[in-house]
């Protein structure tokens, strides 16, 4: 999967295909969180709610692009 590495912690944030965000820490701990940062499953870890929202948020098409 494609994702973004957090610049401070090195954690990998990526979409899980279910509308949630999969967060993988450098030490191997994994958590599934909502785009709002609430834990769905996995380890209890601190997540960056802004990055989780950016990665897992809705994808909006630009209003000037034609289909």
Largest sheet: 5 strands, antiparallel
Strand tally is 5
Binned strand content: 25-35%
User: What's the arrangement of strands in the largest beta sheet?
Assistant: 1-2-3-4-5
Query: How helix-rich are the residues, as a percent range?
Result: 10-25%
Shape type:
elongated
Low-pLDDT stretches: none
Please tell me the overall pLDDT. 90
The class by helix and strand makeup works out as alpha+beta
What is the CA-CA span between the terminal residues? 26 Å
Number of helices: 1
Query: How many domains in all?
Result: 1
Radius of gyration: 13 Å
Order of helices and strands: EEEEEH
Q: How would you describe what is shown here?
A:
The protein has one helix at residues 49-56; strands spanning 3-5, 12-15, 21-24, 30-33, 39-42. The chain is built from 1 helix and 5 strands. Helices cover 12% and strands 28% of the residues. It is elongated and about 45 Å long. It has a 5-stranded antiparallel sheet. It has one domain (3-56). The N and C termini lie far apart (26 Å). By secondary structure, it is of the alpha+beta class.
Question: Helices, strands, pairings?
Answer:
Layout lengths: L2 E3 L6 E4 L5 E4 L5 E4 L5 E4 L6 H8 L11
Question: Main attributes?
Answer:
single chain; 5-stranded antiparallel β-sheet; 1 helix; 67 residues
Briefly, what is this?
The chain is α+β, with helices and mostly antiparallel strands and 67 residues long. Helices cover 12% and strands 28% of the residues.
